[in-house]
C-alpha cells in the first residue's frame, strides 16, 4: 500500500522519525510521499527522500503560507526544487477559507502561479481544499490544471463534488476522516470510481479510528484501506493493488525493486 500524503518532516516526528518509517514498512506500506508546506519543509522532504529509496517528495507552498509567495522569484525557486529526481508533484497548494492564515487574494495568486510551475515541469499537483471547493474548481478549470492532473487530498466533500472533480481529470485521496462517523464520506468511499482513489494519512493529523485524537503516522494508512474495503465490499488486497496502481500512474513512481 502507498501512503500518498505524509508530513514526516514535521516536528511531531522529531523523536521517532526513523522508527515511524520502519513501522510503516513493517505494516506493508512500501512507499511514502512526503508533502512540503513551506520552503524549509520542502528542503526537509527532499532530504528525507534522498535518505530513503522508497520515500518521495512533493514541493509547494501551502495556502496557510501563501503570504511568503513572491511571484516570479518564488516560481523560479520552486522550479529548482522540482528538478530534483525524487520530486514527484507540486504541493501542497490550494485554498483554505477556514483558517485564512493568509489573505484569500494572496492564496489565489500563489495557487495559480504554482499550477503554472507544475505545468512547466510537467508534474501533477497535490491540492489542499478547506471550505473553498467552488473557487478551487474554478481555478483548476481556468488554469487548465487538468493538463497535468493531480489529487484533491484529504477529500471531504460530497459525491457530487467528487464526480465533478473526477470528470475534470483529477484523483481524490481519502484518509482517517473516512473512518469517522460521517455519512457523506461513506457515500464517497462507496460510490466513487476506484481507479481515481488514493490512500493517505495526512499525518501527523487526522489519525484514523481507533487512534483518533492521537498523533497519526504512515503505518495507519492501513486502517484507511481497511475501511474503504469494508465500505465497498471489496477485498483489501484489491483496494491496495488498485490504489497503488493509481498512485504509480499519477506520480510516475519508479517500479518496486
Ligand atoms: Ni497535508
Structure description:
- With 257 residues, the protein is an alpha/beta fold.
- The protein has one domain: TIM Barrel.
- The protein is built from nine helices and eight strands.
- The protein has helices spanning 17-26, 39-51, 71-82, 104-121, 133-142, 159-167, 183-191, 221-232, 236-251, and strands at 2-6, 31-35, 55-59, 87-96, 125-130, 150-152, 171-174, 197-199.
- Strands 1-2-3-4-5-6-7-8 form an eight-stranded parallel beta sheet.
- Strand 5, helix 5 and strand 6 form a beta-alpha-beta unit.
- The longest helix is centred in the middle third of the chain and has 18 residues, at 104-121.
- The two termini are 15 Å apart.
- The model has no long low-confidence stretch (mean pLDDT 96).
- Bound molecules: nickel (II) ion.
- The site of nickel (II) ion (NI) has 5 residues, from loops.
Amino acid at each position: 500500500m502507498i501512503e500518498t500524503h505524509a508530513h514526516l518532516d514535521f516536528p511531531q516526528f522529531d523523536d521517532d522519525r526513523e522508527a515511524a518509517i520502519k513501522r510503516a514498512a513493517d505494516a506493508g506500506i512500501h512507499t511514502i510521499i512526503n508533502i512540503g508546506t513551506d520552503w524549509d519543509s520542502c528542503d526537509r522532504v527532499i532530504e528525507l527522500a534522498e535518505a530513503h529509496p522508497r520515500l518521495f517528495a512533493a514541493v509547494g507552498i501551502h495556502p496557510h503560507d501563501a503570504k511568503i509567495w513572491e511571484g516570479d522569484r518564488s516560481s523560479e525557486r520552486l522550479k529548482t526544487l522540482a528538478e530534483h529526481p525524487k520530486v514527484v508533484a507540486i504541493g501542497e497548494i490550494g485554498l483554505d477559507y477556514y483558517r485564512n492564515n493568509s489573505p484569500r487574494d494572496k492564496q489565489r495568486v500563489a495557487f495559480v502561479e504554482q499550477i503554472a510551475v507544475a505545468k512547466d515541469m510537467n508534474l501533477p499537483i497535490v491540492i489542499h481544499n478547506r471550505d473553498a471547493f467552488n473557487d478551487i474548481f474554478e481555478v483548476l478549470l481556468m488554469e487548465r490544471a487538468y493538463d497535468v492532473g493531480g489529487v484533491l487530498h484529504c477529500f471531504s466533500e460530497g459525491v457530487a463534488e467528487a464526480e465533478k472533480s473526477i470528470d475534470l481529470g483529477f484523483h481524490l485521496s481519502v484518509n482517517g476522516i473516512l473512518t469517522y462517523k460521517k455519512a457523506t464520506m461513506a457515500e464517497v468511499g462507496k460510490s466513487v470510481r476506484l481507479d481515481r482513489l488514493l490512500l493517505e494519512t495526512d499525518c501527523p493529523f487526522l489519525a484514523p479510528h481507533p487512534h483518533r485524537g492521537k498523533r497519526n503516522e504512515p503505518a495507519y494508512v492501513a486502517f484507511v484501506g481497511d475501511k474503504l474495503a469494508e465500505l465497498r465490499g471489496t477485498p483489501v488486497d484489491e483496494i491496495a493493488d488498485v490504489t497503488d496502481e493509481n498512485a504509480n500512474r499519477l506520480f510516475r513512481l519508479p517500479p518496486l525493486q
